[in-house]
């Protein structure tokens, strides 16, 4: 039994290692708004550096790690495959998390969600105010770098708040489907809010894109 292995220029047959590999390089997604669009809550300098430098670095490093993994897979080099897992997790998580984060924000955001999402928030947290307080507290409490998340527990059919360290992706590490992520790495706020993370978290609620979060919720329930 042979498996197809795709390279840029050709299709090769390689010895079986249990998977079918086909991949295109990851790319940095465009923002759906200008860098200055979230001011005064998140300034343009932060957005430009965060998107064009930090997120771009995760994308580039992910592509490098996947290329090395592809080579190790073709050779049957399990040791190298295992050694690449931290880089895949960190850079892959950084790409996944930020791709969600940009769509979770909007210059027309803020306020409160409506419809099914609001009903679920009231059901699972008592009120929107309680939910906002809990997610803020979890995000403030992240030690070092990481993320605060609102996720959907598909098995239990309920919303759940969680924190992830560094760039650990929510679904890949907890099983929760990501709906709303709040980046609490210092690069997300330090230039504007210095070391006062609570001020940044207070401000970010003014640009949360509830239409996007609601759409994610409706989709993951199907």
UniProtKB/TrEMBL annotation:
Binding site for Mn(2+): 50, 98, 183, 187
InterPro entries the record matches: Fe/Mn_Superoxide_Dismutase, Mn/Fe_SOD, Mn/Fe_SOD_BS, Mn/Fe_SOD_C, Mn/Fe_SOD_N, Mn/Fe_SOD_N_sf, SOD_C_sf
Gene3D superfamilies for this protein: Fe,Mn superoxide dismutase (SOD) domain (1.10.287.990), Iron/manganese superoxide dismutase, C-terminal domain (3.55.40.20)
SUPFAM superfamilies attached to this UniProt entry: Fe,Mn superoxide dismutase (SOD), C-terminal domain, Fe,Mn superoxide dismutase (SOD), N-terminal domain
UniProt domain Manganese/iron superoxide dismutase N-terminal: residue ranges: 25-106
Domain Manganese/iron superoxide dismutase C-terminal: 113-216
UniProt entry tagged with the keyword Manganese: yes
Superkingdom assignment: Eukaryota
Requisite cofactors: Mn(2+)
The reaction(s) this protein catalyses: 2 superoxide + 2 H(+) = H2O2 + O2
Molecular functions per Gene Ontology: manganese ion binding; superoxide dismutase activity
EC number: 1.15.1.1
Major localization class: mitochondrion
Assembly behavior: Homotetramer.
Role summary: Destroys superoxide anion radicals which are normally produced within the cells and which are toxic to biological systems. Destroys radicals which are normally produced within the cells and which are toxic to biological systems.
Family of the protein in this entry: Belongs to the iron/manganese superoxide dismutase family.
Name of the protein in question: Superoxide dismutase
